[in-house]
Specification:
Helices cover about 30% and strands about 35% of the residues. It is α/β, with parallel strands linked by helices and about 180 residues long. The chain has one domain: Rossmann fold (3-Layer(aba) Sandwich), CATH 3.40.50.10610. It has a five-stranded mixed sheet. The longest helix has 22 residues.
Length: about 180
């Protein structure tokens, strides 16, 4: 057990005693571009069951054990938040204000579609946030596959606590957007 996880244990213990809930959201990185630009659709996004069956932020304490706190929850549905932030970050990276999240109404306005399968998205005992995702990029119309990859990304937590975990996970989504943007 590393020092980072030992520092987190008091937060988990205190959180289980407290009755007040804290809510967290994911945030895009950088300035939003103006309108216009290439159309990018993001979705559908799927997530591992341990992420969507409950609203809690998750830490993996050992290879086969996850830790949660009932009082530290996502402010909305995690899959929707993840999709929204990935679309925003892709727009920023490709300098387009023309991003959509699945389902969209007019596919003819899009040049690309990105689908994502999130397999891991949590904190670790060594002070990192982890994102493992498989994704595919298609050129529209016609859904011609242009890239299919799996990325395992890590981001250090700059301090202890659940707010920093949410911030590190936001940075991970931007890292994934950077990888995808290179392929579009």
């Amino acid at each position: 057990m590393t020092v980072h996880f030992l520092l987190l244990l008091p937060f988990l213990a205190l959180a289980s005693c407290s009755t007040e809930r804290s809510y967290y959201v994911l945030s895009p990185t950088g300035q939003a571009p103006s309108s216009g630009g290439v159309g990018i659709g993001v979705g559908p996004v799927t997530m591992a069951d341990y992420l969507i069956e409950r609203p809690y932020l998750v830490f993996q304490s050992s290879p086969n054990k996850m830790e949660i706190s009932n009082n530290h929850v996502w402010g909305g549905e995690l899959r929707n938040d993840f999709t929204r932030v990935l679309a925003s970050n892709l727009g920023r990276r490709k300098n387009t204000g023309n991003t959509r999240t699945y389902p969209w109404e007019r596919e003819k306005e899009l040049k690309y579609q990105v689908t994502v399968d999130v397999r891991q998205f949590h904190g670790t005992p060594n002070g990192e946030a982890v994102l493992e995702a498989s994704w595919r990029a298609y050129e529209l119309p016609g859904s011609r596959l242009i890239a299919s990859k799996t990325n395992s990304l890590r981001e250090p937590l700059t301090q202890d606590g659940f707010e920093e975990l949410a911030a590190a996970q936001s940075r991970l989504i931007d890292k994934l957007a950077a990888v995808i943007a290179k392929e579009l």
